[in-house]
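In keeping with the milestone schedule agreed at the kick-off meeting, the structural modelling team has produced records for the first pair of proteins. Each record is given below as a sequence line and a structure-token line. The laboratory manager (R.T.) confirmed that both were archived under the project's standard naming scheme.
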Amino acid sequence: MLEELEVIKTDALTAIGAISDESGLEETRIGFLGKKGRLTAASAGMRDVPKELKKDVGQKLNEVRTAITSALEEKGASLTAARDAAAFSSIDATLPARPLPSGGLHPLSLVLDEAVSILRRMGFALAEGPEIETEWHCFDALNTPEDHPARNESDTFYFENGKLLRTHTSSVQIRTMEKEVPPVRIIAPGSAFRRDEIDATHLSAFNQLEGLYVDEKVTLADLKGTLEYFFRELFGSKTEVRFRPHFFPFTEPSFEVDLKLHATGKAAKWIEIAGCGIVDPAVFTEVTTKRGDAAYDPSGISGFAFGMGIDRLAMIMYGIPDLRLLIENDVRFLRQFA
């Protein structure tokens, strides 16, 4: 039995050495280690080996199996390495690699990140709220009467349950005042939705950035200084800013903010960029009623609020002529911002 096992080992190692492809490797493995292989058949003969020789024959059997298995693995690795070398032999490693396209942030993200960074440096904290809102948060709490055009279904997206897609992120200001006590200094960037016809300057879904500051003795001078600093940090120190009296239900007095736009080859012109004002005491009264305390008693506090469109900021900053370019995902347009 010992001599037979040695012969099997010799024959197996010789056969493995002569293998030239992977099919031959598998045939050899089956021939020696398969269910009907020579070594398997020899193993079955262990029951006929005298008791005093079983230990020696068992050790020899394990030795032969280990030698054959190791030789098969080494041969397999050798064949794989040879196949890989042949596959790469025709590749010129000195050729330059194909260029990988570079990615980048969307222009709206670039403008928003910069705007938020400026306002954060001024002490404003980020706040957020749901895009599906109640009429109270979106209109009633903001002193918007029931007959106001913004509350009409032709201007606002309503759901069957009476809720709506927020028409501005001012609702976040109300939600913040519900939860926090003055002083409050927050900015609320996010999406807003209106039933506008889509054209070069209007979208039905757009991006806003609104701010609120509430404390004791907040004045119009604080509002003016905040926004002038913000726009000059965003567009440059020589940016001209003006405030025009306007009307908003939730601020009194109210203003629209204009920037003087200098386009190459064209006469400078003023363009409306934001709305703002001193928070109307009626807003504080509504919040006070909702909270049930005197934290926002209009006799003891004041505040200012402002809002602007991120889309319009991007159009001015990058000279984009058509708002629709920002939502069409045309790689040719977006690539210039990467």
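The second protein of the pair:
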Amino acid sequence: MQNDLPRAVLTVSELLRSVRDTLERRFPLLWVRGELSNLSRAPSGHCYFTLKDRGAQVDCVMYRSRAAAFDRELREGMQLEAQVLVSLYEPRGRFQLTVEALRPAGLGPLYERFLRLKERLEREGLFDPATKRALPPYPRTIGVITSRAAAALRDVLTTLARRNPAAGVIVYPAPVQGEGAAGRIAAMLAQANARAECDVLLLVRGGGSIEDLWCFNEESVARAIRASRIPVVVGVGHETDFTIADFAADRRAPTPTAAAELATPARAELASRVVDCVRCLAREMRRRLQYAAQALDGGTKRLVHPAERLRRSEQALAQLRTRLAFALGHRVHRSSAQLERLQASLTSLDPYAVLARGYSITRNGAGEVLRDAAQAREGQDILTTLARGALQSKVKKRELL
């Protein structure tokens, strides 16, 4: 019996989104092998290409951050192994693979070994930028660790001679390919440090396959680089070649020639710096001379001839004497005025001054001053003191008030 209930009607977007979700749940991250074709790079840095084999092909997209991590140049016809997520591009309804990582086909185990070692050493902190040593700005002696027969050695020596022929160069020979090469390179790094002849070490080799460069992916080389007390510059292969030694180095150069350029400044650069230093010194000398001239002018203004200083001292002494005489005269005048006031006060209080105005003082025989007639007796002798002289008399009669 047909179900009469209405069925849900999906939009195209809903349908494709459901298919996409189903694909991504059904197929986890996996590896796919194929031949690269139809490669194109967008201005954004994303890469679009096709992986194909004899029976089929599939569209792929590799976003910029993932593409930058691939250490080789992508070329048409390359056999690759891609780590992908199966997905669906909804705006076009197109099945595609989103590439998370790439490696050359046939080198899967070796490349996996490289990635595992890199991840382990990175977790250990061996590649920590904080542990990297700065390169000396003006090295006097440069050590080169490489094979004597390597073309990279000729390139390095030519570059060093061109840029700074005054710098000394010591070659520490070591094989840079084949069995036992990693141990020899590590031993030569230790020997260069023990001899302590150089300011910087260059570990260099020309390009080659991943197998040819594998000695630079050995853990012993990475640890010898980090154990070096002398800064190490690694320039191995071409610009797209990356090894474990590159990550362990204090500086990584894309080529051996670039390593030589990093290690020493060019003569023209040194000459330019010398010219700049001369200019700075001349400018500083002028500035110091100008400051000294200004200080001299200031000192000259403050400098006084001894005769002038003596004249000023005499003038100051004369002024002090004048002020002293004025002060003394003023003090004498004030003291004289005060003395006159005191004398006037004393004069007004002098009893003899009162007598001079016609008054007198009368005392009894005991010398007591008589202020009241009742104090005297009739017939008593009394003495009257006048302004001039005294009178002795006898009381005949008293008139009491």
